[in-house]
Amino acid sequence: MSDNKPSQNNVMNIKTGLAEMLKGGVIMDVVTAEQAKVAENAGAVAVMALERVPSDIRKAGGVARMSPPEIIEEVMNAVSIPVMAKCRIGHFAEAQILQEIGVDYIDESEVLTPADEEYHINKHDFKVPFVCGAKNLGEALRRIGEGAALMRTKGEPGTGNIVEAVRHMRRINAEIKRVQNIDESELMTIARDMGAPYELLKIVRKEGRLPVPNFAAGGIATPADAAICMQLGAETVFVGSGIFKSDNPDKFAKAIVKATAHYDDPAIVLEASKELDGVAMRGTEISEIDEPMLMANRGW
Amino acid sequence: MQSQAKPIIGVLALQGAVEAHKLHIEACGAEFKPVKTAKDFEYIDAFIIPGGESTTMLKLIERFNLWDILKDQFSKKPVWGICAGSILLAKTVLNPEQESFNILPITIKRNGYGRQLDSHYAKIDGYEVSFIRAPIISEIDESVKILASHKSTPVWVKYSDIMATTFHPELTMKYPSPMHRAFIDLI
Q1: Does residue A86 carry a catalytic annotation?
Q2: Is the Cα dihedral A263, A269, A275, A277 positive or negative?
Q3: Fewest CB atoms within 10 A around its CB: which of A35, A191, A219, B185?
């Protein structure tokens, strides 16, 4: 344990350090070892091992839980890139199991049915790093306060609809700008209104960004979706249903990786968009979703 | 001494921990430039291949046809491979076997210490650094100079003007790191 604590405060947390290594990449949801290999071969920086992708979780209904350990271990054995896995919001016992399996990152995720409607996991208790979703700055800083080493937008998973991820990305950007521009004497009131830890808000004000990397997730289905998220300031993208629910997972995976690496060069994003060889997942309009199935509203 | 212009350090920015180098490079009096395409390569004085995922970088180098161009650049300019970057430079890669530029006569084993749970800090040359899912150099040609070792294997090596570290000095916020200083001194 002493090995995992820096002796001085000037070394970045080893948990956030792994997120730094994933920057500029694509993290893909996979449900089998074969899919994990397709993802790795396409250039994914990491995979998320699941029992079902979010769009199938929506269809199946019922309670969505942590994946069976066998599926996660099968994926870990199949690839050399980092493997992440999801636990339910607040379900620290599922997180303990994932740490025991030895996954590289735990996603305390709104895609699964929450286990606790009041408390998220105290992520400082774990040696494995956590990623969490947020819709706004206050929520992001609450999760970081609990020990999350990486943030992502919630978006609306399993919809193939980018609108919520864009909304969350823009909202967090706008709130960061606002915090930078206010008078310092107003900061405590803002912290109260946002429900954000004051000390973390001070860091945001000084640095002009979240204290941990910020990725995008929820509804990304095409190379252009990846490019808009990256241009809005996401440092990496998570693609859930968008790859293995498309017509041609291999081509979609490769094209989204290519577009993410050159997100700021429309000529290359165009090239990637012509290499799909099939249509994207069908997608869902957010207003067609029943209230309890709006995943972004899970957690606080 | 030919010119007073600042040396430009190009950090290969296809994927990985790129921005973290900026303040280290600037603290050495050099200019930081993320580079992705062949036209960016011409104007830089030295290359850093950053930490990240070596498989992802390999795929992108192939897909964007950068293999020969980079190999040519590495033969002319100093290059420093960090973690994933050191894997790309090695002669032989294990766990699993994969392609590489084969310009540094070492054998390197990916994820040599294990997974993220085995990531750790260490002091190298009096400077605190991070080993993140780091590789281990398992064999080394005698022509390669070992600059530092950790847990009885070499972790910082130099061969002509090629440098490699299996750890990350760029994640330490005390600028510049001795490794950045040593690398920029190679120019």
Answers
A1: yes
A2: positive
A3: B185
pTM for the full predicted model: 0.96
Q: Does A4 sit within 8 Å of B59, measured CB to CB? A: no
Distance from CA of A262 to the nearest CA of B (A): 8
pLDDT in tens, A94-129: 999 999 999 999 999 999 999 999 999 999 999 999
Chain A interface test: which of B56, B110, B129 (most A C-beta within 10 Å): B56
Contacts of B16 in chain A (CB under 8 A): 20-21, 23-25
Residue B124 maps to which CATH number?
3.40.50.880
Domain membership flag for residue B1:
no
* Dist CA B32 CA B14 (whole Å): 15
Side-by-side strand order, sheet with A214-215: A214-215, A150-153, A130-134, A105-109, A83-88, A46-49, A26-30, A237-239
User: Could you tell me if residue B2 is inside a domain?
Assistant: no
- CA–CA dist B22, A20 (Å, integer): 14
Q: What is the pLDDT of residues A42-93, one digit of tens each?
A: 999 999 999 889 999 988 888 999 999 999 999 999 999 999 999 999 999 9
Domain count, chain B: 1
B3 part of a folded domain: no
* ipTM attached to this prediction: 0.96
What residues make up the domain containing B115? 8-185
